[in-house]
Amino acid sequence: MAGSWRKLKKYLSLKLSSHSDPSLPPPPGIPRNDVVRSPSSRSSSTSFTSRLSRSFSTRSSKKTCAICLGNLKTRQGQAIFAAECSHSFHFNCIASSVRHGNRLCPICRSQWRDIPFQAPANVGDLQFNGTGQARVSPYHPTPEDFHSQTTRNLQLLSYQSREPHHFSDDESLVVNSADSADPTSPVSLSRPQLVTVKALPEYPAITASESFHTFAVLVGIKAPALLDDARLLDRAPIDLVAVLDVSGSMAGSKLSLLKRAASFLIQNLSPSDRLSIVSFSSTAQRIFHLRRMSDNGREDAFLAINSLKPSGGTNIVEGLKKGVRVLEERREQNPVASIILLSDGKDNYNCDNVNQRQSSHCASSNPRQVLEYLNLLPASICPSNRDSGDEGRRVIIPVHTFGFGKDHDSTAMHAISDASGGTFSFIESLAIVQDAFAMCIGGLLSVVALELRLAVKSVSPGVHIKSIPSGKYSSEICDQGQQGVINVGDLYAEEGKEFLIYLTVPELSSAEGEERMEKTSLLDVMCSYKDSVSNEVVQVECERVEIRRPVVLSPMDMIVCLDVDRQRNRLWVAEGIAEAQRMAETGNLDGAKAVLAQRRSTLLSSASAQAGDGLCNWLESELREIRERMASMELYEQTGRAYVLSGLSSHSWQRATTRGHSTTQITLLSRECGDSRTRGVIGYETPTMVGMVTKSQTLNLTPAQRSRRLNKSCSFNPRSG
Q1: In sequence order, which residues have a C-beta less than 8 Å from that of residue 251 and are 6 or more positions away?
Q2: H or E element: which one contains 276?
Q3: Could you give the CA distance from residue 282 to residue 246 in angstroms, rounded to a whole number?
């Protein structure tokens, strides 16, 4: 009790001095001229503040946070901010103070040049007492505001403690303002924006006497861009569930960085989006029900995130089951739904046999063990677990997994994302957790086309579809090779996908007296999808694919289409990486490196690589990086496996992932842009992904640094085209 009274007296003294000292800024919203002080109070308070500052700084500033009066001991799951004036504070306490414009040290009043990360607006203090209210606020809310905030905090904690049996308590969807928009507005006039479709043959011509058994046609699609003036109306809103690991291994900087990344996610969701948060360690708990990210929703989501504390083991399956329930049991549905899963460890609660328990990885690379692990997951994220007769009834929920650090189970995380249609990202460096989240949500918050389906049809006798290497996208060839379908699903704004369709092309034979045909029609190509806002079905066709059939080829006729060659190289490299990964898992690193070297050699001799194609240069760099991470079995198990699997995930879905220390595959192209070199997207990133990552990376920069960064940048071009 005595200790509590001492803390209270110290807090009241600090509060009194902050009201009296003329050097302190007034409370937010009150002009400096409106703060009236008497001369006597001004002099006495200055003297008192001086004595208190000296006393505090000499006796307790190194042991106590001057804002919350909590202990500054390390290894207690809290980040410590050491200012340039040598005074220390809890990182979250001082970040909250700085967010409101206070850039003076609370103890010595010195002006700071370097300030801590400014958390999003309305973020609550990360340190809570038993009631959920921040111990000490650096500001002075009115009694009404204080009562409202305390009530909401108590309601939130009460809601967390009494998790319902059925998760049908999701907040109602917002009415789409686009439906009631003025039909003459720019937004209405621009709808619907169309997905573009292209189709290119491998060669412009083949001789009439030739026949091909694997003639390639490249079919590509690209989504439209978001409108700059209507980004919230121009995309599909999302229902997102964040399933977060809070096991004991997440203590310290890991959990602090996770909270910061989750806060960035919350800040960038719109009022039309809904978020739920599930935390898991030995068990799983839904700590925040599915709510719209309105101002109040955001504030309560911040409070929920900041209440996370590390403890216990790692039960990934239980966390995913609870996350799936949130989406399966909701009353209403946004057009897009997804789960993001982050973990730094191995699932030590769902290893069913002794071999798995003794294995260095719970779900090892053994296909049988991986399958046994996937069998534990709900059918909504692992379709192979559906009962007979249940096919097609449940929507598959994509899970985007993030493996954090060197101790996570990359095989299990990759298998989960692969089965559900999500991506697997490997976060090797703790510093890029927020950037990795930014990359993912940059895509999820830009969906413009839903349920896209690409259809091709043969239009000439003897022309048959032989194969469609479509990665992880489901494809089907039917009607004896006359028709083919690729189910692509959702497309992000300005996202492109390219597929090779392999055909048989017969020779042309004309009977005596018949006119010889000068060309052969190969394919009709069409795509259909739902517009993300209007929900209307849109169909887009491209020109029929045709080739000429001369008697003799000209030199130009023998030049391969570089777009086709580029795509063939991408598939060739991805297949080689998968083969090398299988060999590495058996311990044959020499064989794996030999495969990579052979693929690299073939890649560099291709027509597109010889022409200086940027994608080929990126693929060559990827092969070299993987080879380096296979230098030894120890290095491969530490980082190589996760790096390879995140790359395979990216290639399989033609979608960007975080790999190792980098969130992006943006490289400098040789093309000039004025006096600076042009940045170009070579991998699978979209402009919205790049923009979100840039936003994340510039949060800690000063205005001068932001200006320099902006001056260095130049417009970039997408990889395809």
Answers
A1: 75, 77, 310
A2: strand 274-280
A3: 9
Q: In this structure, what is the dihedral angle of CA atoms 646, 687, 501, 209, given to the nearest 10 degrees? A: -130
Give the pLDDT score at 371. Answer: 85
d(CA 623, CA 395): 36
Distances (CA, A) of 99 to 78, 298, 435: 19, 16, 21
Which residue spans within 658-719 are E strands per DSSP? 666-673, 676-681
Query: What string of DSSP letters covers 46-72?
Result: HHHHHHHHHHHHHHTTTTB-TTT--B-
Residues 6+ apart with CB under 8 A from 443: 492, 495, 655, 656, 686, 688, 689
> What own/partner pairs with CB < 8 Å and gap ≥ 24 does 161-164 have?
163/285, 163/286
pTM of the model: 0.75
Total Cβ atoms within 10 A of residue 223: 25
Euclidean distance between CA atoms 19 and 531, whole angstroms: 56
Report the alpha-carbon distance of residue 303 to residue 299 in Å, rounded.
6
Straight-line distance from the first to the last Cα atom of the chain, in angstroms, rounded to the nearest whole number: 71
pLDDT tens digit sequence for 107-137: 777 777 666 644 444 333 333 333 333 333 3
Q: What are the beta bridge partners of residue 526?
A: 455, 541
3-class SS string, 432-476: HHHHHHHHHHHHHCCEEEEEEEEEEEECCCCCEEEECCCCCCCEE
How remote is the C-alpha of 528 from its chain's centroid? 26
- What SS3 state is found at 641? helix
- Cβ(497)–Cβ(195) under 8 Å? no
CB 561 within 8 A of CB 212: no
pLDDT tens, residue by residue, 475-506: 999 999 999 999 999 999 999 999 999 999 99
* Strand 519-531 with 545-548, pairing: antiparallel
Q: Which of 679, 554, 626, 682 is nearest to 205 (CA)?
A: 554
